[in-house]
Design goal:
422 residues; alpha/beta; D-Maltodextrin-Binding Protein, domain 2; 2 domains; 6-stranded mixed beta sheet; 17 helices; globular; membrane; signal; Bact_solute-bd_prot1
């Protein structure tokens, strides 16, 4: 019944998204020519306020400077599902954002849906480490990497200062910070578990932080070569997570990310675990807030890693016409200019993939340092099927309710076995 409902919703979303798009200029892409103006759809998957403001500013500037081209941004709910549905039906946006390190993207490339950008000059503006992450199995580059993401612990810098606290670099220090805040009558941590997807983001962050080989273990489990039940790293991870819950808001499981962010910026919590995608939204809600972020610490600073991958990456449909591709390349080259990438970074707040862009926010320095040092791990979707991951999110959400470590590991094994067999 759930699968049928999901299909109905997906169809509704697809119709909604198509209504928001221009009419198709060809059988395989969405564009429209009115007079001498070629309108091109840019389907982008970032729903947060910060990146949308960044894109809109750049698009408005591009359209003003290029009167023969009109870029129209299209953002819809559940964009990943909608994009997959549109590609399957042959209705591919001329320009779209995607996640080039994920398995699903590699399949799109293999199926011939994404244009190879390897020879484009604008890729020379991308820093080498970010570009290397997006290289596909054939050695080609099929996306313009635009920003890096991360999941970390955002904190109220003023609240830390008032309570004489410094950024913790080990798990023990982190627990001591939570104890100090709790003793002062402050809820140390704001968590939001209403959406399984956001639960999953924290799960991935915790896995990278506390189970160094965890993602690889899940990949082995999908191949029938490993079990999570009894695994010492995963046992450690969920024990730490259970401890973390004792310092969090009591309504965490029922709270949405939006409500949690609002409570956090209004001083109800000292910290909040979320992604770089939320920074712009947080500061937009309270521009005067002194906001910092640090990696979720492991037992030692040296063994601490953060979840980080390519966030915004812009692609071109391989099915677009030559005219559409030429317009798309012009827009991507414009995005890759340092000045424009700086505009996006200023609104989005995440580390940029474009050379010359400077993020002068000292509050994110601990995360940037960790990323620059290579103490990172890409998202699970780079090695594990999205279907397996999505089902694990639901299992972990159950752990938020019962806090049973043995049960969640057993249930994860069962979930992986079922989903992997489908």
């Amino acid at each position: 019944m759930k699968k049928k409902l999901a299909l109905v919703l997906c169809a509704m979303l697809t119709v909604t998204s198509l209504a928001a798009c221009s009419k198709k200029g060809t059988g395989d892409s969405t564009s429209e020519t009115k007079g001498d103006v070629l309108t091109i759809e840019f389907f982008q998957q970032k729903g947060e306020e910060g990146p949308q403001k960044g894109y809109k500013t750049i698009i408005d500037k591009f359209n003003a400077e290029n009167p023969d081209i009109k870029i129209e941004m299209n953002t819809v709910p559940d964009p990943g599902t909608v994009l997959t549905s549109r590609i399957s039906s042959g209705d591919i946006p001329v320009i779209f954002s995607d996640y080039p390190t994920q398995q699903q993207f590699k399949q799109k490339v293999a199926n011939g849906y994404v244009q190879d950008l390897s020879g484009q000059e604008f890729l020379k503006n991308v820093n080498e480490s970010s570009l290397d992450m997006t290289k596909q199995d054939d050695g080609g580059y099929y996306a313009l990497p635009y920003s890096r993401n991360y999941i970390g612990v955002y904190y109220n810098m003023d609240m830390f200062d008032v309570n004489g606290l410094t950024v913790p670099t080990t798990w023990e220090e982190f627990v001591n910070v939570c104890e100090t805040l709790k003793a002062a009558g402050i809820t140390p941590m704001g968590l939001h578990g209403k959406d399984p997807g956001r639960v999953g983001h924290m799960f991935q962050c915790a896995t990278v932080a506390w189970a160094p080989n965890g993602i690889e273990t899940i990949a082995k489990a999908t191949a029938g070569e490993a079990k999570l039940e009894g695994d010492p790293e995963f046992t450690n991870e969920f024990n730490k997570m259970a401890t973390l819950f004792t310092y969090a808001n009591e309504d965490a499981l029922a709270l949405s990310d939006t409500a949690c962010y609002e409570n956090f910026v209004n001083g109800q919590y000292a910290m909040c675990i979320t992604g770089s995608y939320a920074r712009g939204t947080l500061l937009s809600s309270n521009p005067d807030m002194k906001l910092g972020v640090f990696p979720l610490p492991n037992d030692t600073k040296e063994t601490t890693r953060t979840l980080s991958g390519i966030d915004a990456a812009i692609c071109v449909s391989a099915k677009a016409s030559d005219e559409e591709k030429a317009a798309a390349y012009k827009f991507l080259a414009y995005l890759a200019e340092t000045e424009n990438a700086q505009t996006f970074c200023d609104n989005d707040g995440a580390p940029s993939c474009i050379n010359g862009v400077v993020n002068d926010d000292k509050g994110i320095a601990p995360m940037v340092e960790l990323i620059n040092n290579g103490q990172t791990h890409d998202w699970m979707a780079s090695t594990v099927s999205n279907n397996v991951i999505s089902d694990l999110y639901n299992v972990v959400q159950g752990f938020w309710a019962d806090k049973n470590v043995e049960a969640v590991l057993k249930n994860m094994d069962e979930s992986i076995a079922v989903t992997s067999a489908e």
